[in-house]
Amino acid sequence: MKRILGVILHPIGILLILLAVYALMRIPSLGAMPIFTDEAIYVRWSQIGSRDASWRFISLTDGKQPLFTWGAMAAMRVIHDPLLASRAVSVLAGALSVVGLFLLGWELFASTTVGLLASLLYVLSPFTLLYDRMALYDSLVATFFIWNTYLTVLFARYNRLDSALLLGLGVGVGLLNKTSAFFSLYLLPFSLVLFDFRPANRTKRFLKFIGLSLVAVVLSVCIYSILRLSPYFYIIAQKDALFVYPVREWIRHPLEFFLGNWHGLFDWLTFYVTVPLFALGVFTMIEKGKWLREKLFLLLYFIVPFTGLALFGRTLYPRYILFMVMPLFLLISWGMIECIRIFGKKVGIVLTALCLVQSLSMSVGILRDIKTAPIHPSDRGQYISDWPAGWGVAEIVSYLDKASRQGKITVYTEGTFGLMPYALEIYLVDNKNVEIKGIWPFPSIMPTSIAQKTQINPVYLLMYQSQADPSWPVEKILSIAQGNNPGSRMRLYKILPQETP
Q1: Are residues 475 and 438 in the same domain?
Q2: Within 13 Å, how many C-alpha atoms sit on residue 315's CB side?
């Protein structure tokens, strides 16, 4: 019994327990959220690429790097449901983040306790819980940021060729996922806070650091250049410019949007990290003691990207700061340890537990009912209660599938890119009796070609962005609210047969 207990209480045993809790919090509820607009796009791309090798770089047609879709393509070989397969990529990425935080905390502070607490914070965080169950790039971005930060620490401390090569490889592969991975290169000079500046051979070691840094940068850029094989590579820069101001444009108004962006980003940060835990992280930096350089390193790896996004951000969403929160988990973990040291074991544990209550409560709310879950309004509209959410997709797919068993049908969707028609195509692509066509902009008068179609086979119309009923001759079949918002509904109509000249 003592041996079993010893295995369980061993840091690796605790880490395995945390991974089990992580899986229980993510996997059973993987289908609880409706498909979201961006998810529909990425899942459809992955589905197309999994069936046709010539389209493995399909995401570049919209300026998105392909690594996440490659992972989803592989997952679709073993998981039947395309949406769940794609979301499983984020689940796996989150599990790797749990392990990465443990290793990073262990390496930085020579303490498995710090690493385990950071992993616990990741598992229980409502921020990670929300995005680890979505088919979006952001969980994978956070994973690469954690592991590349870990490799950066090894490189800065030991200044070896193997660590430089591993860092270059990690950043390069991360760049195949999202442009945000460039932060791991931009932040590399700040890792000098961990550099050994003792006099012995200092100049030689510093020059070696510079040389090996260049090796890492060149290797990562070479790996990223794989994307140049696609004729659509240039679209990445165009797409990035929609979300982040290019420098040549930013210099015209360098601080015009900074305060507004900062306020919004900080609001998202304190909402999802929660004020008590954020205060613990601040307490860590105020409290004097050892490991000052390590804490400064983590602070820089949070504050520099955060400030950079506030300066250059053009179109922002809460998920863009997910990867920046990872260093905060480690600072908060150290704050918990310091709290216990200062206030004593009993009082310190009670205080740290109280700091976790709000975060845990929010996560429980997300797992209990996503429609009423405590998530930020900026996310609620997109994922739960407005037209980008996909409540009703499952019911409409089921209805159309049954209708198609009687013969061929045609479905027109409001929109040609995004949730519609992609959500229907994902599930009905193999049904030869269903023809799906997108329409945009939506005409107030029914086109003659559609009227003619009604004379051939049943024709349906799916609307979800505009909320007014169409002026076409239609019969409403289904109407499903987005979350608990009756003002936003996905509707399926049957177009009544029309005689044409």
Answers
A1: yes
A2: 5
